[in-house]
Protein: NADH-ubiquinone oxidoreductase 24 kDa subunit, mitochondrial
Amino acid sequence: MPCLTNHNDALSKQKLTTFEPPESEHRKISAYQPLPSARPLDHRQLSSHHTSLAMASGLSPLLFRSALRSATCRAARPQFRAFSLTAVRPSDTLQVHRDSPKNNANIPFKFTKENEAVIDEILKRYPPQYKKAAVMPILDLGQRQHGFTSISVMNEVARLLEMPPQRVYEVASFYTMYNRTPVGKYFIQACTTTPCQLGGVGSDVIVKAIIDHLGIKQGETTKDGLFTLLEVECLGACVNAPMVQINDDYYEDLTPETTVQLLDALKATATATGGAAAAQVPKPGPINSGRQTCENSKGLTNLTSEPWGPEVTRSDL
Structure:
């Protein structure tokens, strides 16, 4: 291919002559000859300039290697964060509505005569034009009657209070005390926030004891319909950690042994026909810890004297 070769040779020669300026345009300037617009450099500036050139020439390989190493590390490093392996706390497992045979708008719901009387007493606390402010206590009343806050309960509350059903749905879906799916006779809410994790044996040990004894996972109900387990956020009894709430009662200072005894006593009460089994259920509060309510574990250690009298208070109070 002589034509192509000759053409390339011509291009090469053209490139060489293109970057070689004519002899007439060469300016033979010393390395440190001052420019016309600049003042001459003195010996101190020349010395500093020499030093800068020496440092630049000596550091150039090092800077190049450092930049290359940084670029290589950035290219090899993953550009995304790894997924967290922490287990999700299902504290809102029961706060989702899905139509089911037990929970849909076609299931009728009406308050009993007794609860209608309670509703009348509740509404007396509010001006007639603001009776929708009673939505929370009436929702709670419906949940206690029906067992959970179904869509039919919410619709009936909306009808009674003359408010849009969506407003009732917003309240029921915001507050976690409204269970929007059926729960067992004994609704166990186990606190697993930091104080209960650190207090006593720790809430994880208590939750494991409940799971192992009942054979259910969090958010599930036993086959006999007696127990539902749910992990929740702080219940406000941090000083008596670990603790659980079962229906309306707090059981505190728990150990795996006392937790199992409590569950067995509740089950015996639900299946017994007499009242003897009910006497075996521990009293709400600290269990077998030897203290009353939230007092110090060593007993009363302060506020042991008689309270101050009126001499230390203002006379006009």
Summary: The first strand starts at residue 186 and ends at 191.
